[in-house]
Design goal:
The complex is a heterodimer of chains A (124) and B (272). Chain A has helices at residues 4-14, 43-64, 108-122; strands at residues 18-25, 30-36, 72-76, 80-86, 95-102. Chain A is α+β, with helices and mostly antiparallel strands. In chain A, α1 packs antiparallel against α3. By secondary structure, chain B is an alpha+beta fold. The chains are: A alpha+beta (124), B alpha+beta (272). Chain A: This is Dynein regulation protein LC7.
């Protein structure tokens, strides 16, 4: 059983190459918790902006008639990976984990696996 | 009234320094209480904020469903379990501690639901009000197992939420008025979450009532409702135009020539 802070701390320390992590409510765009980030990378701004990414993808899936649910979304930049993982539970009261990785140090498959594990520990 | 405007700062004693410190504050009083690390309860027109050592530990608003509703509505916790805990405890924070101790509730779920409820009620508590707030100092700070948030974080989030709503659909009328479906309805696609909201629009319920009915955060429902309004699927119930003033009773002296003629005719007939 983990609380929000320990879950975020675990993500930041145990995932190789992680530079920032946030737990975000995607209806309001509010970050319920953030860790890491920097002066030049405001996780709160990233959190709010990425809710639009998820909404847009969900709408597209609906138009296409796809029944599956989004597990995660990967955005790869030239020097970073951004990994978005949607949380299940709580009756779909949408939350997502947002993880920023340094692409030169990160192992993407491993990061994805670990993030899934952290989501399960969070028990929400 | 637009939701965007912050109310003008209330007059403060120490003007020279206070003006820069409380500039842009949603509630200058709250900002001062935070700086003084005050403990107590701030009662505002649309909600109540509980402070402990200058941090917000709990918020309530008649417009936002409480922690109990958010926890029990989606099966995170059985209603009976909450009622049992609430019966034994003095307040929601104590009840939460009992549930944690009894391992009926994961810590993470409780924390997140608490933060959801706090920011949700805080949004309404900090909405522009027409009456000044009142603060009641309390002696012992009640720091329960639940996280608290700095006043500045709550203010920042509340402002961000106002802007978000304004961007979605600039008319705040749908936030509090009873809602009715648009007729003829537009054919915009809606998400399952929005469908649940739309299904409860009946010309009587307002957005906060729909939120309570669904066990969702009131602000989330405001977001859905503004998006539905922007898509032309619903709107506020039009307020009935004031009934036309009752025409004054006709004077007893009759001036209508026809009636006068008829009267003379009647009198003449009676005289026969």
């Amino acid at each position: 059983m983990a609380n929000t802070e320990t879950a975020l701390k675990e993500a930041l320390t145990s995932i190789e190459g992680a530079t920032g992590v946030a737990l975000v409510d995607y209806t309001s765009g509010m970050a319920l918790g953030t860790m890491g980030g920097s002066k030049s990378f405001d996780l709160n701004v990233a959190a709010a902006g990425n809710t639009d990414v998820i909404r847009s993808k969900m709408r597209t899936m609906e138009h296409l008639g796809l029944k599956g649910e989004i597990e995660d979304i990967l955005i790869s930049l030239s020097d970073q990976y951004h990994l978005i993982r949607l949380l299940k539970g709580r009756g779909g009261n949408g939350l997502f984990l947002y993880l920023v990785l340094d692409s030169s140090r990160a192992n993407l498959a491993m990061a994805r696996h670990q993030l899934k594990k952290i989501e399960e520990d969070l028990e929400v | 009234m637009t939701m965007i405007e912050t109310p003008p700062p209330l007059p403060v004693r120490d003007r020279a320094t206070a003006q820069d410190r409380t500039a842009g504050a949603l509630s200058p009083m709250l900002r001062r209480l935070a700086e003084d690390q005050a403990t107590g309860v701030l009662v505002r027109e649309h909600g109540t904020l509980h402070l402990a050592e200058g941090r917000v530990v709990h918020a309530e608003s008649p417009h936002a469903p409480g922690l109990d509703v958010l926890l029990t509505a989606h099966g995170t916790l059985a209603t009976a379990a909450w009622q049992r805990a609430a019966g034994q405890a003095e307040g929601p924070a104590d009840a939460a501690r009992l549930l944690l101790d009894a391992r009926l509730l994961p810590e993470g779920a409780l924390e997140l639901c608490h933060l959801d409820a706090l920011y949700d009620a805080g949004y309404f508590a900090l909405s522009p009000s027409s009456t000044p707030g009142r603060f009641r100092y309390a002696r012992a700070p009640r720091l329960g197992p639940l996280p608290s948030v700095p006043v500045i974080a709550l203010e920042r989030e509340t402002l961000r939420r106002r802007l978000l709503l304004h961007r979605l659909w600039p008319d705040p009328a749908t936030d509090s008025a009873p809602l009715i479906r648009a007729d003829p309805a537009a054919t915009a696609p809606v998400t399952p979450r929005q469908r649940a909201v739309l299904d409860r629009v009946d010309g009587v319920r307002s957005a906060p009532e729909i939120a309570r009915n669904l066990g969702r955060q009131a602000f989330h429902t405001l977001v859905d409702v503004r998006r539905l309004a922007a898509a032309g699927l619903l709107g506020p119930v039009p307020t009935a135009p004031a009934p036309p003033p009752v025409p004054p009773a006709p004077p007893l002296t009759v001036t209508d020539p026809d009636i006068a003629l008829l009267k003379r005719l009647r009198d003449a007939l009676e005289a026969l």
